[in-house]
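[09:14] KT: can someone run the structure on this one? pasting the chain below
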Amino acid sequence: MFMPSRLCVPALRLLATPRLLPSRSGSRGSLFTFHRRLSHFDVPAIGSETKPHRKDNGNKPAAAQLNFGDHKTAFQHKTVRELIRGLVVLYACAVDPLVSHSYKLLTLGERLLGQRMLRFLVAPFYNQFVAGDSGEELSIVSNRLADVGVRLMVAPMLETDVGEGHDMQEMYVKNLNKTLNLIDLSRQHCTLGGARPICQTKITAHLSADILARVSTSYQSLRVEERVAAVAAVAKLLVVAGGDGGPPMSSSSATEALRPLVLTDSDALELINSLSRLYLLGERCCSAGVVLAVDAEYTYTNPAINLLTLAMMAVFNTPTPVIWNTYQGYLKAGCQSLEHDLELVRALGPDVGFGAKLVRGAYLERERSLALLEAYPDPVNDTYEDTSIVYDSMVEVMLQEVVKNPDTRAVVIATHNEASVQQAVARIELLDIEFRAGNVVFGQVYGMAENISVPLVSDVVCFEHQK
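[09:31] RB: done, structure tokens below
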């Protein structure tokens, strides 16, 4: 298939997560907890993809070529069994009591039925949204998706929350090794050419959320120029932690470097100890040619996550964006946060690249309940329409950045909202963005929204697809 070069996008990426057993801490991979997050993406739809083909629509604008209602094309590659499973699973995930009591149901089911029977009962949910729990299973899914021009973006569901970060060092080592392995698998099973494969991670898989919350409080209190200095200081410590910055710093020297953050000695040392893990992730991604997309989490940890991710950008995005950060459109301050971090990256120097994954967000209920409980302003947009305005604004910011800095900017437009996709495609065409470089891609959750993914492949862009 071929289309005009300005519409040729090398990658449509869908998310897939490796299979995880339910766990209260460390790997918050509870099946229904995972689907609860999915339920806050845009428009749920049964998902998969078909072989891309180019339709001859003359000079019709790209956005106008998209047909999200052509279900025959979108699902013709699916078996009847897969369609029925998708219908049942997605409707089940929209049942609030099932979602709200997911962890209780899983633990009760395990106690009454045993792990084997429980796995049998929840298998349809995992098979709908999970790419596999081994390299062989990932390879099968990856090859199948490659046939329809889609490439995997692996999303390990490894994280902790406040109150779960005690005696976690062994877990951090396991999470590091799992993520390194997934980075290698992302490259190994990238059977399509074009843009680099993407692997995702959460900072709370590598550092306690309790510490991140305290770092966030300190970081937010700094002025812009102080934040730039803090990012530069952490970047320097990151290089030292990786063994590339000369002789190791003493604990006192390293702690002193973090003095603007006003941390306790124990928090500073925990933060410093995490840097060696983050360095290994960035180093592996650089050597493997894989992008590392760092997920956003809760508002009380996001500032520290931004700090650490920007520090990784300063070290590894020189200038090609290897480390990307995530920005949430369901937050009132979503666009301001994106623009603020772009300002910090510019201050770090012209040779520092910047990548962003733009999502609507998945922590809506907890954010609102915490705001109500602790009597502070609700950070979440009042309406879905407000969220769409913020999200589309973030997309516009990043598209303008790509136009001005095509070699140092990149973005994943991760959305299931049809209007947002159409608007983004229209802007991409109007701005004459060259997609063959792979710095603008779309993403949907694995197992959802093929009615969006397939038209993006078949109607508009000759995606050298990724998933």
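[09:33] KT: thanks! The beta strands are 12-18, 130-132, 151-154, 198-201, 291-294, 323-328, 354-359, 409-414, 440-445.
[09:34] RB: yep, looked fine to me
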